[in-house]
Recover the amino acids of this structure.
């Protein structure tokens, strides 16, 4: 509800979202985060205005293309929509992303909660030719 | 976006089936295949670019929504022509209820003299020179046919649709399609000789 | 009934009959009958004008809809995209992993493009977990040795006319059963392939 600094440190849901997004994109086998219509509507709807006025807060939800982060009582909940490279096994990629995201959240002093991952596309990396 | 391209030799039934599964590139392929055909049909039916474009856009948009209900993937062509033709006929009905109607088929020759005897507007001038008198006569008389006859003639002669399919579109038996087509040809042939 | 509707010439001939034999030499009657001669001439002109109008319309750049129309249609299609089914691959307190049926279908279709003579069509996928069966699960699926979830794939295809269907289907099945673990990391337990149509090559 509040942006008031507690113990001199504010970790916002936006920060967690961008941390999760960056971690995912740095994981081998992740091609991109996949914007969904749901995310698009959320961005265009009232939530988008909220996001503009208040870029995440200690208790609240932040959404961006392919990533949603919520902080509730010091515990994070992250959802990622990803597209993976066909030369990697998507399930393993998702598992690695989850471990890394949780690990990175641990460094923020928040408690890493669930990291849900939806694999929405499996494709050739741009530039590689189809079989 | 899923921009994987389709196999070059893909049969239409398979493209339709994939579009039914929500594959956007398959649907886009269908849009590209049919938009020109439907536009030519709608333009010759309605003689108005804007209206014809609206018909193309509405028909293909509706086809996306109703695609899962299509049971025979090989019937897509007939189905999409049927949607477009009926939209044209609806619009012509709407128009004629607004305007004074020229419904008597015997009025056609009189009408053909006052109505547009020129190639469609917006045509390239260099093209216009090539536009033969025969074609001019044909399109002029075509515009004066009753809508059902015109639809029947266009579907058969310009778009190669089968009698059965045209019958399903215009809600008449294949034999009745044959009759309507013969009357349309008769009217056009006569109109063309008088027009000259 | 419809035949009565077909315009008759004064000599009793149907326009339809003349039209059908337009490209054949005139019959003796047609050579002598003035009405038939006139009608044949005007129908021949119509036939020629029809052919050239068809040709011209087909190639006329002005008889195409404005270029933006594809985008306008595709924008609507994208906005109204049927929400693809999500298949849950695993769920622990550390999070849930799911995959869209569309992502798997695309993988399967891509695998199928490697096999000449088949075109993939509709694809439906279910998942079976190897955990003791959740509600509604077929009890026969219990006791599978492999850990993790596995898929049941129902793929419909069209086959090229004249190919060896059993052999092609077998090759396709092998291709899919190696493409799914490679790209998705899941085992394809059952791959049902239905040849629902033939296409000409």
């Amino acid at each position: 509800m509040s942006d008031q600094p507690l113990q001199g440190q504010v970790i916002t849901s936006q920060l967690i979202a961008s941390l999760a997004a960056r971690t995912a994109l740095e994981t081998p086998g992740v091609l991109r985060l996949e914007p969904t219509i749901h995310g698009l509507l959320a961005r265009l709807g009232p939530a988008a205005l909220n996001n503009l006025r208040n870029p995440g807060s200690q208790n609240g939800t932040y959404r961006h293309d392919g990533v949603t982060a919520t902080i509730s009582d010091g515990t994070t909940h992250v959802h990622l929509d990803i597209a993976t490279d066909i030369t990697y096994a998507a399930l393993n990629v998702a598992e690695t992303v989850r471990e890394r995201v949780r690990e990175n959240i641990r460094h923020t002093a928040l408690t890493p909660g669930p990291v849900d991952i939806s694999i929405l596309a499996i494709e050739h990396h741009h530039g590689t030719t189809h079989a | 976006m899923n921009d994987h391209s389709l196999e070059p030799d893909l049969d239409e039934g398979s493209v339709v089936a994939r579009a039914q599964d929500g594959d956007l590139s398959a649907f886009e392929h269908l849009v590209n295949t049919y938009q020109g055909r439907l536009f030519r049909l709608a333009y010759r039916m309605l003689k108005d670019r804007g209206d014809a474009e609206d018909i193309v856009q509405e028909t293909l948009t509706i086809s996306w929504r109703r695609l899962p209900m299509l049971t025979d993937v090989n019937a897509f062509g007939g189905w999409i022509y049927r949607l477009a033709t009926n939209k044209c006929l609806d619009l012509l009905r709407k128009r004629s209820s607004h305007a004074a109607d020229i419904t008597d088929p015997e009025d056609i020759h009189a009408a053909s003299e006052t109505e547009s005897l020129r190639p469609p507007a917006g045509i390239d001038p260099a093209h216009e020179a090539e536009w033969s008198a025969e074609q001019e006569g044909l399109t002029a008389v075509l515009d004066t046919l009753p809508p059902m006859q015109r639809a029947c003639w266009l579907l058969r002669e310009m778009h190669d649709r089968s009698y059965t399919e045209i019958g399903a579109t215009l809600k008449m038996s294949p034999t009745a399609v044959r009759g309507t087509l013969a009357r349309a040809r008769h009217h056009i042939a006569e109109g063309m000789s008088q027009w000259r | 009934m419809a035949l009565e509707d077909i315009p008759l010439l004064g000599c009793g001939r149907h326009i339809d009959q003349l039209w059908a034999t337009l490209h054949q030499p005139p019959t003796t009657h047609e050579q002598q009958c003035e009405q038939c001669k006139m009608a044949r001439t005007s129908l021949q002109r119509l036939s020629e004008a029809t052919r050239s109008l068809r040709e011209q319309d087909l190639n006329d750049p002005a008889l195409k809809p404005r270029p933006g129309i594809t985008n306008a249609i595709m924008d609507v299609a994208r906005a109204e995209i049927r929400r693809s089914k999500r298949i849950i691959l695993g769920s622990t307190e550390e999070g849930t992993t799911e995959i869209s049926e569309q992502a798997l279908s695309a993988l399967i279709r891509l695998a199928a493009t490697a096999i000449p003579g088949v075109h993939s069509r509709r694809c439906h996928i279910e998942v079976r977990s190897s955990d003791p069966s959740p509600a509604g699960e077929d009890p026969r699926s219990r006791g599978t040795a492999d850990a993790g979830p596995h898929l049941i794939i129902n793929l419909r295809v069209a086959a090229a006319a004249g190919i060896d269907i059993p052999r092609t289907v077998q090759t396709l099945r092998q291709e899919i059963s190696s493409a799914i673990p490679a790209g998705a990391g899941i085992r394809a337990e059952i791959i049902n392939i239905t040849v629902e149509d033939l296409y000409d090559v």
